[in-house]
Structure prediction request, 715 residues.
Amino acid sequence: MQVEINSIWKLTDVDGYEDGLYRLLACYPDYTTVVLFQLVEGSKLLRPVAIDLPFFLRQTEKGAISPEKYPKPHFQLVDDESISESHRQKRDERVRQIKDLIADPRFLFTLVTDSRSKVLAEHAKKQGVYVQALYRSLNLYWKYGQEYNALLPAYKNSGGAGKARVAGQVKRGAPIKLSTPSIAAPPSVNTSERDKAIFLKAMTRFGMKGKKVTFRKVYDQMLKEFYSKELIEADVEDGTTMVPQYRAFLYWVKRLVPRQELIRKQTSLGDFERNHRGLRGAVTDHTALPGSCFELDATVLDVHVVSEFRRNHVLGRPTVYCVVDKESRMIVGIHVSMEYASWRAGRQTLVNAFTSKKEYCARYGIHIEDSEWPCRHIPQRLLCDRGEFICKDAEDLAVPLIGHLSIAPPYRAELKGIVEHRFNILNEDLIHDLMGTTRGRHYIRGDKDPRMEAVLTLDEVNTMLIDAVLEHNSKVFDSLAGQSGLLIEAGLSPTPINYWDIHLQKLRHALSRADEATIRARLLPVDWVSMTSKGIRLNDDMYYESDHPDFEDWKVIARSGSSWRLEARLDQDNSSSIYVRLKPDEGFSRCWLRKASRTFDERHQADILFFEDWKKLEKHGAMPTAKSVERHQRRKEITQNAQKEAAKATPLKSKSEKTKGMKERRKQAILDARVSGEKPEEQHTSPQMSVLDERNEERRKEVVSLLKRKRGNKK
Prediction:
């Protein structure tokens, strides 16, 4: 244990010494003695005491003497330029009186060892002051650390600051100033102790009930509740109301009710914890590395979007999910859709955050390299809201993949301050400049309706959001500069992507990786598809193909009528591919849309459902038209007329007579059709026709029919 000059020690149950705090003024190793001065409040004059050094050290080992702290008064912790001239003169005069004494190194030893020493008396006579004045100056000098500023005048308690005074009968406070001499100021009353108690009761009853209330309203309610008698008497007697004025009420309330208590009692517990409580640290205090914690949250974008099929149809405001790495401020995943905040949309966001972004960006026409958005990792912990993730599906699917899922308490948005602030940044940098934006506020009468200005589709907003995220990840944030020394060592600017990359290069992160098929199998919704001769069928119009070596053989088997069901995982945002368990003993394999189904390429699941519903409605509403009825009636009339004409024909002797000679009759009908179809002038100008008919008839007679083989004879 080191024994230092001016150190403070606490003595407890030490023989020969009072319990309390002591300052060590000097140490004399040659005499194995240290000099202590007791620190007490008040103006009592004390002398230093001596204590044996070995005894002092033994008591410190036993714990009877322990180190402590003793604060200095605030008026001593200033520079000379801040001290008034009069105070400096008083300090310098006191220093001059004791300077020779404190400059003598043996003065303290003599004072504590010789109780009859006349050093102080002789010095006081020499300086022309009283001995008590020297003692008073020395006591201040020893008490406050043996510094010259310890002798400054101590006026901190002068005037009784902060102490309550007993009020007299004389009217206190500034009188009311009136400019008209003929008008007399009304009489008023002093604030009594009873009035102060009423002020506190009124504030408790009317002003601190969980909502913000003006002092004027509390004052009016107080008069009606606690001063009703005085008010009624003054009204009946037509006199002056002798009650405390509003100025007096305001003066005493601000002194009787602590400001922090008023703030706490005029709001709810959640609002106080979120917006008014004192901050005890930073959001990154518990996340030392990238990947320690991802924050996930959703909000409704401040912009209206229109339908991709019909631009004059407004769909409303989409929901955006955002996943941010708490340590590096890196936006690691986003998801924009017309879905409300739910586990259905939240799982799609996690898939985006945990997988490569190159293909995702290419879908929207943005071609990047993996190094431009290198986020496809799984964190140690995921912090999210209670709404969509406090469900059994999240516990069963996300927890085994992530490891730890933290649910924020209700009404505590500040616990996800990083992702909440990212929404503000995206709004300021992009959303509030778009056509159809609400600018984050309610519609005000006279403003243009933002829905009437909406022109952007969901995909167009998504494309611009991706650009904004890439811009954000490359933006300089001052808060990142002091979090890690790796940026300074590498000479990199404090951007999220630099912070992310350098920590991954130095292996200082808490990130992990998983196969994309595994991620999608864990998080995407389960569905069933069928193996058919055309491929894997999702519905009546969507077929997928795979590069599995047995895929073509399976189509052959399915074509024979032996189709079977397969388990699949569907991406709600992109129907271009699905993940299918092709064999029971295998994992999930990626399958792509066939060329015949390219109409549904990169379509959202909502578009597919819309197409299916449209087909059902069209089929359900397909009723015969007037033209169809007319055609049906015509066919019916023709049939009936044919039946009547057939009934007029000569009856046949047998059924075979109706079909006998059918070939010859058909040839004759063809010849008749040819002749009847020619123009009259062509019939007269074609004498060769009769000659050809005669030749055909001769050839027909020369043809010899061969015997036909019986059908049942295979020989």
